[in-house]
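May I ask for whichever protein you like with its backbone structure tokens?
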Amino acid sequence: MPVSLVITSDTHVPKRSRDLPHSLWTAITSADVVIHAGDWVDVALLDLLEQRARRLVAVHGNNDHGALRERLPEVARAELEGLRFAVVHETGDAKGREARCAARFPDVDVLVFGHSHIPWDTTAASGLRLLNPGSPTDRRRQPHGTFLTAVADAGRLRDVVLHAVPPRS
């Protein structure tokens, strides 16, 4: 049975935004699984996501301390519809990322990461798919904030869509 995913990272609430964008909350509410690749900043958002998400797979990031580090691992793993996922905040420099991550995660089909705030979707020579959803609240040098949706279905990741977050009015 297909599993709908919302993939986000680097939310930085409440430092970069008071709340998540409405479009992301809407996606979270309808998803089967929410994946968050760290840099929450405040445990209050983790509490909210745990309440609203049907299932949450999440890690802490370099800007997460205290309760966030106590409650969230550095690396999270989940098997969803025959796909082996790993989630980590940082993967290092973009140069050589695919080979480095394939060596670090040889038993994984999809690696979700954050930290750079730059969307990323590539596949290593080993077949490992690397996904970074960007940031929905802190676009940095990107034209807009972003998050991803996808579907895990019978051992395949399909319908991967990068969503632009509408600017606040």
